[in-house]
Amino acid sequence: MRYQISGRQIDIGEALQTHVQTELDEAVGKYAGRPTDAAVIFSKTGFEYSCESTVHLSTGMTATAKANATEIYASFDQCREKLEKQLRRYKRRLKDHGRERKQPVESFGEPSYILAATAEDDEKEPDTLQPIIVAEMETKVPTLSVGEAVMQMELSGSQLLVFRHETHNGVNVVYRRDDGNVGWIDPRSNGR
Question: Which ranges constitute the DSSP H helices of 70-160?
Answer without folding.
Answer: 72-89, 91-100, 146-156
